[in-house]
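Give me structure tokens for this 85-residue protein.
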Amino acid sequence: MSDEKTKIDIFQVVKKLIGPVDPVGATHIDKDRFENLKKITKLVDQLICEIDYVSTHNKDRQEFSMKQAGQYAYNFLKNDLGIKE
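Here you go.
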């Protein structure tokens, strides 16, 4: 399975598990969607913490595969998210 296909499948699974997050202007619906939004932001925070851990503990390693993963994680955090110095 290609990486792009895997990303789409994982994203769809998460969306299905958590539910919609976009408010629609109806209080009874938006209450649930706000709870879904809190769940998805908590998940994103946990994922970023995992990526940060890989970056911090591996980007300067001597072992190629560990350094590769650490640098990839570091570059993602720095270039894609702008949260690394």
